[in-house]
Amino acid sequence: MPHTVTATEAKNAFGAVLDKASLHGVVGITKHDEVRAVVLSIEQYRALLASQRNPLAELEGEFDALVTRMQTPRARAAGRALFDASPERLGRAAVARRRKRG
């Protein structure tokens, strides 16, 4: 990061720091000779946001497919049967499923 200012300069002359960020894209703010923060130009900020991928976008298709499967007549009937089942029937189904999985 070639363009840096001290924390004191950033506090005392923030307008000048903003001008530097606009000119150079990014300005590091140092404290005790170590960069502790950065000021980005709006262009750099927008570019950073545009480069980020949406972590939920990967799941959208999977979620939509799941919802579609849940809307089938067979899935709806299974859901109704589940809520209508007695505790004993649910217990037997759980045991059977466990045995089937091994």
Characterization of this structure:
- The chain is of the alpha+beta class and 102 residues long.
- The protein has 2 domains: 4-51, YefM-like fold (3-Layer(aba) Sandwich), CATH 3.40.1620; 57-101, no CATH class.
- Helix content is 67%, strand content 16%.
- The protein has a 3-stranded mixed beta sheet with strand order 1-2-3.
- The chain is elongated and about 75 Å long.
- 5% of the residues are buried.
Q: What is CATH's topology name of the largest domain? A: YefM-like fold
Radius of gyration: 29 Å
- Low-confidence segments, given as residue ranges, are none
Q: Percent range for helical residues? A: 55-70%
Report the CATH C-level class of the largest domain. Alpha Beta
Assembly state: single chain
Following the backbone from N to C, one meets helices and strands in this order, namely EHHEEHHHH
Percent strand: 15-25%
What is the CATH superfamily classification of the largest domain?
YefM-like domain
Count, helices: 6
Strands in their spatial order, largest beta sheet = 1-2-3
User: How many domain regions?
Assistant: 2
End-to-end distance: 58 Å
> What's the rounded overall pLDDT mean?
89
Main sheet summary: 3 strands, mixed
- Shape designation: elongated
CATH architecture descriptor name of the largest domain: 3-Layer(aba) Sandwich
**Class by alpha and beta content:** alpha+beta
